[in-house]
Amino acid sequence: MGKRLAVLLLCMSVCLSSASCGADGVKPSPPGDGSLDSQEEIIDEEMVVMPEDVSIDTQITVSPINASQMNGGVFEGWGTSLCWWANRIGYSDKLSDMAADLFYSEDGLRLNIMRYNIGGGDDPTHNHITRTDSDVPGWLVYDEDSGEYQYDYDADSAQLNVLKRCREAAGEPSIVEVFSNSPPYFMTVSGCSSGGFDPNSNNLRDDCYEEFAEYLAHVTNYIQNELGIEVTSVSPMNEPNTNFWGAYSYKQEGCHFDAGESQSRIIELTYDCLRKYELDNVIVAASDETSTELQIEEYKQYSDRAKECLGRINTHTYNPTRIAELGQLAKDEGFNLWMSEVDGNGMSGENAGEMSAGLWLAEKIIYDINSLSPSAWVLWQAIDKHICEEGYKGRQDSGMVDTTQGFWGTAVADHDSVDIILTQKYYALGQFTRYICPGSRIIHCGGSSLSSYNPETKELTVVAVNSKDSVQTINCVFEGFKSFSRVITPIRTSGSIDSGEHWAELEAVYAYDSGFVASLKENSVTTFIVKNVELSEIELEEVDISLGTVSGSLPWNNGSDTADKAIDNDPMTFFDGVKDGWLEIDLGGKKEFSVIGFAPRSGFEQRMVGGCFYGSNNGKDWELIYEVTAAPSSGYNYKMLDKTLEYRYIRYSVPSGRADGATEDYLCNIAEIKLYKAAVR
Asked: Which of 295, 456, 485, 607 is deepest in the core (most CB within 10 A)?
């Protein structure tokens, strides 16, 4: 008997309040003629565009069998770090309220995750942190009278002011994580919270590990029990196993922790101190490493007890090497996983102007979630630049960004005008955060698209990005759907701040019996809302092909990444076939199946586009089973077939030459092939 993989979207155990986007516990439907509450719909069939009647540029397939399994399948939401921008604007109640509304309220981005930075504070005799927003105060200050360091609960009043207002604007469900960039300066080897004299060496003094863990737990206890803001998690390290953090930096705090004993020790001690304060609801997250590859290697070097104390893996994706492997590691080890920080000054699109930064961010979100499958995605900081003629504390602010280029953040704080200047990057982010709600189930669909299903509201959300300077036509195919509204609401961001679209609701799109066809405007991000969706329960029974005989073309450079790697049950190994590559599996006899499962080579998902699966019963006459038309997600992808098939031979091959606009020939890279029988209810 083969393995069974159950996908039970309709039977998900999800708290109703956790599935909402709004502060009142219910996600409002997008307004407009495209939203129907009634199950009965009167459709003018002439308004329905059929895929065979138009030229399709991209096919998107949405199927519950490709739903994320991370965190029991429950997506926890979207967020941003509060440092450093909250430290800079928190003096102003008006700016703080504006930010809370723009980023966390129902009318804004609808974020629900806040990452509060417990600052280490720097030596008051130092004057090297000249970036105006990043000089975050510590909670411990030296008292001349007693000659001791004492807690000053007002020291970080600016960031706390923003935290309180964001928490109120977000409502429920909201999540507060506290994290540290550096211990207080007097606990460090260098005496400087920006890092060590040797940035490759530990900067927390050996005799201060317990003291630092106590500091984190004490502040967490104050936030939760004195301020009444529930804390979900504490992350005691930030990008620790790097050499970024050197003494006397002009901007950020930072602290190197070696992998292994040093990181394990602070995880264990933080956990113990949280228990001492009876903060049993607060978990420890780690390591918030800059690279997913480093995060993998650090996890492997945690002590057994550190793994027992760990409640969640946090990673950044500035360097996403081996990103799919990290997602698989978290699932294999039974951990929840967040993408807890990333941003950048990247650009995408063709002649995209002000949309270039937003398109880059949209593609980054899709890549991260399709590759890593995290239960939350968190931006580094929503505001990265500040305008102020007088500067701040004698230091000069950064000023306005060029919105036609790449830039960090999504908005700029204008302290002179007491205003927050929005960009198209802000609105591009909202195409995801406003409509993919906490409590939803992410459904991976590959390519430049992402989808989710909200089991409370029965709504499906599909976000599609077009980074070309011409209109693209998509065919979005639904598989495993019992029913859905045939009137679909598109919402779009495109163009410029002055004359473009900002979450603009468009005319309704009318679905055919198993999906819909729609046009994507050039250089745009479009969200489609499908109401009244009922998904099937699908149970997959794996067909055993482990004893099959595999043959294939030569691997690249005659190496060891041979065709047999495609059935070794390990998605991290792969067949590295070159151009005109192929592989065949002789199953030894006919096998029935109705679903093909496959995993691309991690990091090279695009190489599967154009690849085809074939079946044969004599090894000579081949029938096409399925063609990969868009870059699949990392990890396993599943394709439901129109009917049950029966073949002895399975072949996977790529075309000759290269696709239009491609930079390399078709290459036969594939990590795994699986076959299943599906029971659909």
From this structure: 295
